[in-house]
Amino acid sequence: MTLRRLEYFVAVAEQESFTGAARSLHMAQPPLSSQVRALERELGAELFDRGGRTPVLTPAGRALLPEVRRLLAAYDRLPATARQARDGSVGRLRLGLVPSAVAGGLPDVLRRVRTDLPGLEVALVEGRPTELLRRLDLDDLDVVLLYAVPDGPALASRVLAAEPLVLALPHGHRLAGAPAVAVGDLEQEPLLLPARHGDDGLRERTSALLAGVHVRVVQDDLWMVQTMVALVAAGLGCAVVPRSTSALRPDAVAYRPFAGAAPDLELVATWREDRDHPPVARFLDVWGR
């Protein structure tokens, strides 16, 4: 069964005439009739009732016609699909991320991907940095979002965004009304700390920011920034978080900047530069717009 024979079948069905179909196909009528007969033999069913002045689709022909049209349309799209796959606008992107990355610019980027690149599916995988990098190395992920530039052979990285750290406080806290908070104001304050992952992430930035200040750590090794904010809202303590987190629980949590210069937290995309996966480049391009 060839595409050419399927095209002949559609032409006859649309023209309702073997002669008219042959004319539209720029061929003689006998070879066209012969090819349609060959198609019917391959299918084991007659597609046209030839008893009248014009060929009429049989039940088998009526059932087959929309399927053949879809098949031919898909065939016509193959070159465009190949070009889109080559430039990364179709396919699948496996994106690993630390959970707090969702609070930043990622949702807006995903909306733009869905609008601008509807043929690109993005599958999100949350995890700890070490696990994400392991899966990246195993080709189980295509790109990962972290808060540090990792070391490793064949790894490429790009800083996607940088945002300041702010202090999350329960509403009613003595510092909640201050326009800015000095680091020294946190002396002996109850503090919630994120997990340590052995890189230059949020835990390490928090420790550097509060160096020399004696705080009371009331919860340690918290995995998600969202959990930290929920505990702040419950009044268990304060927490150092990325500024984009301020969209969480604004009814119960006050977010205040630090007085003076506070280090920015950088969101970094990392991928294997020895792998050719065009959707990674398209995703990074959308982020940069």
Overview of the molecule:
By secondary structure, the chain is α/β, with parallel strands linked by helices. Helices cover 39% and strands 24% of the residues. The chain folds into 3 domains: 3-87, Arc Repressor Mutant, subunit A (Orthogonal Bundle), CATH 1.10.10.10; 91-159 and 267-287, D-Maltodextrin-Binding Protein, domain 2 (3-Layer(aba) Sandwich), CATH 3.40.190.10; 162-264, D-Maltodextrin-Binding Protein, domain 2, CATH 3.40.190. The chain has helices at 3-15, 18-25, 29-43, 59-87, 106-116, 129-137, 202-209, 225-233, 278-287; strands at residues 48-49, 56-57, 91-97, 120-126, 143-146, 155-170, 190-194, 216-222, 238-242, 253-257, 264-272. β7, α7 (202-209) and β8 (216-222) form a beta-alpha-beta unit. α1 crosses α3 (29-43) and α1 packs across α4.
At a glance:
By secondary structure, the protein is α/β, with parallel strands linked by helices. It has helices spanning 3-15, 18-25, 29-43, 59-87, 106-116, 129-137, 202-209, 225-233, 278-287, and strands spanning 48-49, 56-57, 91-97, 120-126, 143-146, 155-170, 190-194, 216-222, 238-242, 253-257, 264-272. The protein has 3 domains: 3-87, Winged helix-like DNA-binding domain superfamily/Winged helix DNA-binding domain (Arc Repressor Mutant, subunit A); 91-159 and 267-287, D-Maltodextrin-Binding Protein, domain 2 (3-Layer(aba) Sandwich); 162-264, 3-Layer(aba) Sandwich (D-Maltodextrin-Binding Protein, domain 2), CATH 3.40.190.10.
